[in-house]
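Example 4.3 (complexes with small molecules)
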Amino acid sequence: MLMERSHSGAMASLAYSSNVKMRLSSTVMVGFGLGLALLDFSSPVDAAPGDGGRGAPATSVSPALLKRPTAAPARQPLETLVVTTDGPSVQRIMPPKRVALADVSCKASALKLDWPLDGAAGTTWTTQNYTDLDPSSGKKDWKGGVGDSAITYDGHRGYDIVVGSFREMDGNKVLARAAAPGKVIAIEESKFDRNLSCASNEWNYVSVQHANGFVSLYGHLKTNSVKLVVGATVKAGDPLGTVGSSGCSTHPHLHFEIHDCENQWFDAAKEPGMWKVPPAQHEVSGVMDIMFRTGGITSAVEIANAVGNQTHYPAGKLGIGLSAGLKAGDELTFLVLNGVIPEVWSWKPTGRYGLHLPSWNLTLKPGATEVIVWLNGEAKIQRSFTVE
Ligand SMILES: [Zn+2]
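Answer. The structure with zinc ion bound is encoded below.
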């Protein structure tokens, strides 16, 4: 359930904020300075405040501007959600069809994989689930993580790589790409693509057969986003379709799966060198996106279905939501500059690495407003807007 500050809580926070106001006075200046710096360093894929894009890399900002508020008061817990992103039945829907196996080696060592998504870990996507290597009812990921620490769920046969929200799907911002050269052997792209539950087993996918006979499967794609035909030859990195949420899916993501020559699912992490970049590089804590909602945020679904950020919001309640890849030990710090008194919160997620969708609601006054989010002491995302 979402936590919303009660009247008494708001008063307590206000009082505390008054206490920290003097101590934060330099932070206010830092905050606005930081905002300008972030804007200056925005890359072409970063968007100007108000359009829902990602923040500029904080590493390009002068360290002197990244000074973090040190007086963050304790705050109420944020809503967080680690989702199971597809059902164990999904892989049984469409076993890849094999062609011409007679002339292939079937050697796992002959297949080398690039990561099948655009962008970077932590900012564009988050690895939510690996394959489950426990054949029984338990869970075990490729690193040996078991139980609640396993980055998988029982029976999972692929990799679930989540994106921030449906903004990415709607804008065709994150494409599934061929992990290795091969030939397209199956395509489905007619299915509904906006599921936020395991409502259907009908998904959109592309299957690619590689030179060693193995097949890679790219599932949950956006409707009609595949620009290829069966039989087409693809190079590693060629776009296959847009990451979406068709089929049994609780959040937009790519399900990536490998099958061997016997059509058995295969865990790429178990074959040294199959991934050109080892999967350990994929669990990077980061903030993928920030979104705002007039009237407040009442469920994580509203974060997944985020509309574009605006340059102006009405005074009153505003919900602020994040989609982030986080794990226990991380700490988010939020600074909202609205009116005279800065609002500062910090929050620590619990549990294993994965998607978190924290949100909170606050009441804003008319005026220029800036929101900055730090992760582990590093500024990650900044947005400015006007409250009217
Ligand atoms: Zn999956």
